[in-house]
Specification:
Length: 191
C-alpha cells in the first residue's frame, strides 16, 4: 500500500491523469486532486471572491476535468490544461449568474497596480480604494475580468493566458489593456 502511494507521488501529471481516467484508479485521481486542489481553489477564489459559491465552482472544476480529460493532448503542460478547465468553468458560472456580484477579492493586488502613489495610505483610504475597485470590477465583462485576474493576480504571462483562454495573444493584451483602462477611469476619474 505504502509502495503504491509512493509510486503515485512520483508519477508525471499526464501519466497520473491517464491512470485516473482510463483505468478508473481512484488513488491516482485522489493524488491528482491533492496536487492541484489548492492551485485551482486559489484561482477560482481570486476570480469569484471568497464565498460559498466559489467552493462549489472548485468542485465543479474537478468534475469538468474528469469529463474533459480525454481532450488533454499532452502538447502543453497539464497545469495549463487545468487552468483552462478552471477558467472555462468559472466563466460559464459567471455567464449563468444573473448578478454581476461575482468578483475577485484580490482587489488589493489590482489596486496596487493601478495606484501611482506609493505613499502610506490610511486604512480608511485603502478600504475605500478597494471598495471602488471592487465595484468597478463588477462592471467588467467576464472576459476582461478573467484576463486581468490571471495576469495581475495569478502572474501568468500573456502567452500562458493565451493558451489557457485559447484566444490570440493580441486578444489577451487587448482585454487586459481595456480592463485596466476601464478600472482606472472608473476608480480615479470618479474620485
Amino acid at each position: 500500500m505504502k509502495n503504491e502511494i509512493s509510486r503515485l507521488c512520483e508519477m508525471e501529471d499526464a501519466d497520473l491523469l491517464e491512470l485516473a481516467i482510463d483505468r478508473k484508479d481512484q488513488k491516482a485521481w485522489t493524488e491528482l486532486i491533492k496536487r492541484y486542489y489548492s492551485k485551482v481553489s486559489a484561482t477560482v477564489h481570486r476570480i469569484f471572491g471568497y464565498d460559498p459559491e466559489a467552493e462549489d465552482v472548485v468542485q465543479e472544476v474537478f468534475m469538468e476535468l474528469a469529463k474533459s480529460a480525454g481532450n488533454f493532448r499532452k502538447d502543453s503542460a497539464f497545469s495549463t490544461f487545468l487552468y483552462r478547465v478552471s477558467v472555462n468553468t468559472a466563466y460559464r458560472y459567471i455567464k449563468r449568474k444573473t448578478s454581476k456580484d461575482v468578483v475577485s477579492d484580490s482587489v488589493e493586488l489590482i489596486a496596487n497596480t493601478l495606484s501611482f502613489e506609493k505613499g502610506e495610505d490610511s486604512l480608511l483610504e485603502k478600504r475605500e480604494r478597494a471598495r471602488l475597485i471592487n465595484n468597478a470590477m463588477k462592471t467588467l465583462s467576464p472576459e476582461k475580468r478573467i484576463a486581468l485576474v490571471l495576469f495581475e493576480v495569478e502572474n501568468l504571462t500573456l502567452k500562458e493566458i493565451s493558451d489557457v483562454l485559447k484566444v490570440p495573444l493580441q486578444t489577451v493584451w487587448s482585454r487586459i489593456f481595456n480592463a485596466r483602462k476601464e478600472l482606472y477611469s472608473k476608480v480615479f476619474m470618479n474620485v
